[in-house]
Design brief:
The complex is a heterodimer.
Chain A (H helix, E strand, L loop, with lengths): L6 H23 L7 H25 L1 E4 L3 E6 L5 E6 L3 E8 L1 H6 L1 E8 L8 E7 H15 L13 E5 L2 H10 L3 H22 L5 H29 L3 E5 L2 E6 L4 E7 L5 E7 H5 L2 E7 L12 E8 H11 L12 H29 L15 H10 L2 E4 L3 E6 L3 E8 L3 E9 H5 L2 E8 L10 E7 H26 L16
Antiparallel strand pairs in A: 1-2, 2-3, 4-5, 4-10, 5-6, 7-8, 8-9, 9-10, 11-12, 11-16, 12-13, 14-15, 15-16, 17-18, 18-19
Helix pairs in contact in A: 1-2, 5-7, 6-7, 10-11
Chain B lengths: L41 H4 L15 H7 L10 H26 L5 H24 L1 E4 L3 E6 L3 E8 L3 E7 L2 H6 L2 E7 L6 E7 L1 H17 L7
Antiparallel strand pairs in B: 1-2, 2-3, 4-5, 5-6
Classes of the chains: A alpha+beta, B alpha+beta.
């Protein structure tokens, strides 16, 4: 099958704008040579023609086919590429549509597999909206090994729907709290200093500085709020056979699938603002998305009451009521020591500045920051915890944004415990349970920070044992009632 | 150093009496690997009790025993490889320090002292790193211990091994060393490597891991 013919004008627009920009720029740059309107026009027309024929050729040469077990793509104008993606390896099937694409009735279909590399494994740009939905449906049928059409009477269970109130709360709480906190702290400290630097006489700057800072913060906050609202407008999470489906977005609409069998980890995130009003979000991580992709963590529930988030998490993974074990109290001392060093460095820098320039007479006031250290250390400590049961290892950490990571044992890739020199002094260690998630900065790895070193060593071995038990159990379940055992007579053949 | 073509069979490398320990590079038969003194917690070094309810590998116990290893340390030659690296970075760091000191009008002697200090630290680091490095092929996983500043102990279950490489850089080739790289689909420690192996040892381990990974019971992770 071919791409939709309407994608040609859109693609021309998409790439033509880019090319046009370059052309206009180059014309401006070289305008000194007396290039007249006619020449410029010819140039632009020529460029447009080039882009147009290229895009038409691209769309004409792009072909996809649904085989018995693979999705095949034949593409390329000069260098041809044939790609076969086995259905069972496809992790996510997403449909994206922005405003212009909606007006044209076309959509982008993206297929993600666990394989590495940047970007999607396949992205059909563009097919008609109906075709995108049809393909999404077909792929999910083929993936579960069914060839029959879906019973048209079957309905989807709505697991979650974002209402206006929640959308409002999402807008308010979606700001990056850590950034906001840091910025406001910085402004509060820096602006009086800066004011004094600029002109000590102008007392008004003392007021104006913080006022400007507050205005900037509010603007930033509103911007991120609007962004979040646009992004998650009309969010709905459905259960569609063995898949989760979500739809979201006002201007750019997304329609994504998450196969239940491909879920790696769950992550519950509650930032400071959301926590204050008892809300949180739930993210589902699969191995599909490449690191750094814009939506590499799929929010299954962008915002909901904390209880509701846990309830939804429990419908996906049967985690019960986790009771977190906190790290030993000496870990808190470690944070006191760490933050004291930070305060010391800041004060030292201020002192050095005074030494070099001589106009920071109250540099030692930086030491007053130390008053924040004990509460900061306590807040960090109080939000850390881990929990293990027969099926899951759950870890939690973070004050600005508290992340609770839920890892089923059968998703474990590697288990490691590590000890830095500072941890060794206090017999502490960090346990990292690695999973095959996207590997974004905050990753889906369960990290138990600063637990007792013996506990860490014990947990490392225990989780590894539980992992083996769980995969054998899963295999047994899948093979029916066949008892687990050696797959074949164990003769060591070479 | 013989880069012998005789790949040792999985014969008597674990059935040897424990007191037979190779001393440095004196013996170059690959069967005699160095064992690590039992200074570590014994409960981790001991093989897992064989009363596991469900077999984790398709291999029988006898074969497993041949494939698994004690806690082993790396070949001591690897210290030369690391030392070369630290020397180069110490000299670069020292030159930078000297340049800064020169810019600040300080006696250039301090620059030389800085280089010396970095070199000393580098040598200490190399020796510690060598002493800390331990690997073990267990019956269900690869176990690694490494790191001076941050000591990391990792378990990589065979079920999760995607593929196993051996690689040899120019310095490694000159020193007769090889690195074994084990890949998993994980995000963080996606690849774990064991440096400082004799080429034949690396190849032997690669073969064993291949076998163990194939025979490991379980589904793929994704």
């Amino acid at each position: 099958m071919k791409l939709d013919y309407r994608s040609v004008p859109y693609r021309i627009l998409e790439n033509g704008l880019r090319l046009g920009g370059i052309l206009v720029f180059s014309v401006f740059v070289s305008s000194g040579d007396g290039m007249d309107i006619l020449q410029t026009g010819t140039f632009l027309l020529f460029g447009l023609l080039l882009v147009g024929s290229w895009e038409a050729a691209y769309v004409r040469n792009y072909e996809y086919r649904l085989d018995a077990d693979t999705f095949d793509i034949y593409s390329g104008v000069f260098s041809r590429r044939e790609r076969e993606i086995p259905f069972e390896r496809i992790q996510n099937v997403d449909i994206a549509q922005n405003v212009i694409q909606r007006a044209l009735g076309i959509a982008e279909l993206r297929l993600e597999t666990a394989g590495g590399g940047d970007g999607s494994e396949a992205s059909l740009r563009y097919v008609s909206r109906q075709e995108a939905t049809r393909l999404q449906e077909l792929i999910s049928r083929r993936k579960s090994g069914e060839t029959a059409e879906r019973d048209p009477g079957a309905t989807d269970d709505i697991l979650f729907e974002l209402d206006n109130r929640e959308l409002g709360i999402l807008g308010v709480t979606s700001a990056n709290v850590r950034l906001l906190g840091l910025l406001s702290g910085l402004f509060l400290i820096a602006s009086p200093i800066a004011a004094e630097q600029v002109s000590p006489r102008l007392e008004i700057l003392l007021v104006l500085g913080p006022a400007l800072a507050v205005a900037a913060l509010v603007a930033l906050w509103m911007l991120s709020g609007v962004q979040a609202v646009l992004r998650y407008y009309g969010f709905r999470l459905l259960r569609h056979d063995e898949e989760l489906r979500y739809k979201r977005g006002l201007l750019q609409q997304y329609d994504g699938t998450i196969p239940l069998s491909k879920i790696q980890t769950l992550m519950i995130r509650e930032n400071l603002l959301a926590r204050a009003v008892g809300y949180g979000s739930l993210a589902i991580e699969t191995a599909g998305y490449a690191p750094g992709q814009d939506s590499n963590v799929e929010a299954a529930v962008p915002i909901a009451k904390r209880d509701r988030v846990f309830e939804l998490a429990r419908t996906i993974e049967d985690i019960g009521e986790p009771e977190f074990t906190r790290p030993p109290k000496r870990a808190r001392l470690r944070y006191v020591a760490r933050y004291t060093i930070v305060v010391g460095v800041i004060t030292g820098l201020l002192g050095g500045y005074q030494y070099l320039t001589g106009n920071l007479s109250f540099w030692y006031a930086g030491a007053a920051l130390w008053l924040l250290v004990p509460p900061a250390a306590h807040l960090k400590w109080v939000n850390i915890g881990y929990y293990t049961d027969d099926n899951y290892v759950i870890t939690r950490s973070g004050f600005w944004t508290r992340r609770t990571t839920i890892v089923p044992y059968y998703r474990v890739q590697t288990v490691s415990s590590s000890q830095t020199v500072f941890q060794r002094r206090r017999d502490l260690a960090t346990l990292v349970v690695d999973t095959a998630t996207s590997g974004s900065f905050w990753g889906g790895d369960a990290v138990a920070l600063d637990i007792d070193v013996e506990t860490a060593d014990r947990l490392r071995e225990e989780i590894h044992d539980e992992f083996h038990e769980s995969i054998i159990e899963r295999k047994r379940q899948r093979d029916g009632r066949k008892p687990a055992g050696p797959r074949r007579p164990s003769s060591a053949e070479d | 150093m013989t880069d012998g073509g005789d790949v040792p069979g999985r014969s008597n490398d674990t059935t040897e009496p424990p007191n037979e320990r190779a001393d440095g590079g004196a013996s170059d038969t690959a069967d005699q690997f160095r064992r690590v003194d039992d200074q570590s917690p014994p409960d981790l070094a001991e093989p897992r009790p064989s009363t596991i309810q469900t077999p984790r590998s398709g291999l029988d116990e006898e074969t497993l025993k041949e494939y698994t290893t004690e806690r082993r340390s790396l070949d001591s030659t690897v210290q030369i490889q690391w030392a070369l690296r630290t020397t180069i970075s110490a000299i670069i760091l020292g030159l930078i320090a000297s340049a800064i000191l020169a810019a600040l009008d300080v006696d250039p002697v301090f620059g030389t002292i800085a280089v010396g200090l970095f070199l000393f630290l580098g040598v200490v680091w190399v020796m510690l790193r060598y002493r800390v490095w331990v690997y073990q092929i267990r019956d269900d996983s690869v176990y690694l211990e490494r790191g001076v500043v941050t000591n990391v102990r990792t378990i990589v279950p065979y079920v999760r091994v995607q593929h196993v490489d051996t690689s040899r850089g120019p310095v490694e080739r000159a020193l007769g060393l090889s690195t074994l790289v084990v890949y998993t689909a994980g995000s963080r420690g996606a690849d774990v490597s064991i440096p400082g192996l004799k080429p034949e040892e690396a190849r032997d381990l690669q073969q064993r891991l291949k076998k163990l990974a194939i025979e490991a019971e379980g589904d793929d992770a994704l």
